[in-house]
Write the C-alpha cells for this entry.
Amino acid sequence: ILSLAPDVRLVDITHHIRPQGIGEAAFLLSHIAPTFPSGTIHVAVVDPGVGTGRQPVGIECEEGSHLIGPDNGVFGPVREKLGTRRVVRLDPSRVRPGGSLSATFEGRDLFAPAAARLARGTGLGDLGTPTELRAESAPRTPSRAPGSGSVVHVDVFGNLITDLPPGALPGPGNPVRVSWKGPGGSGARVLPRVRTYGDLPPGTLGVLVSSFGLVEIARAGGSAAAALSLGEGSSVTLTPGPSRHAGTLRHRQSL
C-alpha cells in the first residue's frame, strides 16, 4: 500500500483472527468499521477460498466508506450497518496492469493495491465490473432458545465474547448459571454478574457486559478461555442461578 500511496494513513486493526475465522472477522469488522470516519477504506482479508472461484470485491458503502476483500461473508454484518451503494468485482488487470497475481496471496497482489488505488483517487468503477455479492453474510447459527448463544470472539486476554445481549443476564449482583460446551468438554458453573473486571477477586470468573455491548465471560487477571477450555464457536447458555450454589462446579471432559 505504501509503495503506491505513500501518504496514506494506515491503521492495523488486528492480526489475531483465528485462521479461517470468517465469522469472527465479520463480527469484529461490524463493530470497528462504523467508528471510523466516512471515506475510510477497510481491507479485510480472511480468505480460506483464495485462488478459487469466490469473487474479489470492492464495495462502496452508503456513508462513503469502501470495503475491499473476498466475497465470502466477511462483509455481511458491516454492510447491515454502513449500507451498500454498489459492488464491483475487482479485475487484476485494472488494479495492477501488467502485474502478476499469486493464487495464494491476493491480499498482497490484489486487495492491498486496490485499496491504495482508491486512496489515490481512482474510482471504484475503474477497478472492475459491477457485480452482486454471492455470500451475503458469514454462516449464521440456527435459531436457539432464549439465553442460548455462542462465543463469537476470544480477545488477547482470553475474555469470551458471546453473541448474547445484556438482556440475557440478571441484574447486577445476581448470580447467573453458565452452561457450556466446547472443545475441552461441557460443564456448568454459577458465576457472579459484575459490572467491571475489578469487581472480581483475582483469579475468579464472572459475567459482565463487554465493550461490544454483549455478554462476556471473564477471569480477573487470567484467561476465561483457558480456564473453561472454550473458544470461538463454543455454545453457551445462561439461566438465573441461586447464590447458594455460587461455588458449584461441574465439568465433564470429552473422551
Q: What stands out?
A: The domain at 22-130 is CATH 3.40.50.10790 (Rossmann fold). The chain is about 15% helix and 25% strand. Confidence is low (pLDDT under 50) at residues 244-255.
